[in-house]
Write a structure and sequence with these properties.
With 380 residues, the protein is α/β, with parallel strands linked by helices. Helix content is 36%, strand content 16%. Helix 5 crosses helix 14 (369-379), helix 6 runs parallel beside helix 7 (177-188) and helix 6 runs antiparallel to helix 12. The chain binds nicotinamide-adenine-dinucleotide (NAD). This is proton-translocating NAD(P)(+) transhydrogenase. Its EC number is 7.1.1.1.
Length: 380
């Protein structure tokens, strides 16, 4: 099987779908790996290293796309990249097909089979292929470092001859994968951490990381698959009132809250941010999904006129491209192992739970029922 890795072309994307170690292992399993020259540079994998690991380096994107039996990518393909896809090949990539059914349709139109990495089911069996989790882990860690860097204060408590410095107070909103990593990172830096989530089941996990869980007496919004449901209007109001007190006394607020298929919930309205001390920081990991903070400017970092720095930088995993790529690459390797037979040939069994969840297009059609449904609604 020829596995092809193009260079990512979305501005600011430094990750690569396969790192050198994975290339070595896949070549060891008798696959041929073709890589576009420079594809690994952002993740510190040079052409020379990749070649030494057994990859063939091609200088043009067209040659890489044209060689692929299976094309592995990070970012959803751009229109130019879609036009390069080879008929009959398989694309494995982030694709967000429920939010972007047009892309799924364009890929189907190229007679390309799409496996969307963001649709891997959140089950125990699929955990090793779960790029949403691996990349959210990186984002949670990075968000805390951004907060620590922007905050004009120390995170840890220090008792020195020059006086005692109190620890920074960090509030994490949303205690899913990114939020739990943010809590752990802020604790390692010595901050006092509080966290809140609408799913009460995470209370124990929050506490086991040494943070305090903020209890708000509203409905439990645990939905299916470990995700949250949207709150009722009344619950949203009650939540906002209770959170305002905790936000006002925090030096840094890290927001990570998301609800699948919807705009990120608004947790920090402008007036709540206004009540924070001058010098405080908000890092909004949900910036790309519309943001949890009303003042977030997606893709930007700025200081408000009342002195709070709001950080809405996008694609935090790309800022730590070496390990983000290593984890993404490992997730892809596990997926490839799951969908190939002992001779290394691709076998996409649509009745397999993992394949069923992420198989979006095949034979020129959108075959994933939920994606087909949104695609149809979009046309209507
Ligand atoms: P996510 O990115 O969709 O959401 C992040 C967090 O925001 C969630 O914890 C959610 O409850 C929370 N949230 C939503 N609305 C909120 C609001 N109004 N206020 C406060 N918080 C709000 O979720 P995720 O981090 O990708 O995953 C969530 C959970 O799914 C995990 O904690 C885990 O339990 C489960 N999961 C399971 C597996 C597995 O079994 N393989 C893998 C990944 C995740």
């Amino acid at each position: 099987m020829i596995i092809a890795i193009p260079r990512e072309t979305v501005p600011g994307e430094r990750r690569v779908a396969l790192v050198t170690e994975s290339v070595k292992r896949l070549v060891g399993k008798k696959h041929e790996v073709v890589v576009e020259s420079g594809a690994g540079l952002g993740a510190e994998c040079s052409d020379e290293e990749l070649r030494a690991a057994g990859a063939r380096i091609e200088s043009s994107a067209a040659a890489v796309y044209g060689a692929a039996d299976v094309l592995l990518k990070v970012q959803p393909p751009t229109p130019e990249e879609v036009s390069l896809l080879k008929s009959g090949s398989v694309l494995v990539s982030l694709a967000y097909p429920l939010a972007n059914p047009k892309l799924a349709r364009a890929i189907a139109g190229r007679q390309v089979t799409l496996l969307a990495m963001d649709m891997v089911p959140r089950t125990t069996l699929a955990q090793m292929m779960d790029v949403l989790s691996s990349q959210a882990t990186i984002a949670g860690y990075r968000a805390v470092l951004l907060a620590a860097e922007a905050l004009p204060k120390l995170f840890p408590m220090l008792m020195t001859a020059a006086g005692t410095i109190p620890p920074a107070k960090v509030l994490v909103l949303g205690a899913g994968v990114a939020g739990l990593q943010a809590i752990a990172t802020a604790r390692r830096l010595g901050a006092v951490v509080e966290a809140y989530d609408v799913r009460k089941v995470v209370k124990e996990q929050v506490e086991s990381l040494g943070a305090r869980f903020v209890n708000i007496e509203i409905e439990d919004a645990a939905g299916s698959g470990g995700y949250a449901k949207e709150l009722s209007e009344e619950a949203k109001k009650k939540q906002a009132e209770a959170l305002a007190v905790h936000v006002a006394k925090s030096d840094a607020v890290i927001t990570t809250a998301q609800v699948p298929g919807r705009r990120a919930p608004l947790l920090l309205p402008a007036d709540m941010v206004r009540r924070m001390k001058s010098g405080s920081v908000v890092v909004d990991i949900a910036a790309e999904q519309g943001g949890n903070c009303e003042l977030t400017r997606p893709g930007e970092r700025y200081r408000t006129e009342f002195g709070v720095t709001v950080i809405g930088e996008k694609n935090l995993p790309s800022q730590l491209a070496v390990h983000a790529s290593a984890m993404y690459s490992r997730n892809l390797e596990k997926l490839l192992a799951h969908v190939t037979d002992k001779d290394g040939a691709l076998k996409l069994d649509a009745s397999d739970e993992i394949v069923k969840g992420m198989l979006i297009t095949r034979g020129g059609d959108i075959i994933h029922p939920a994606v087909a449904d949104v695609a149809l609604k979009e046309v209507a």
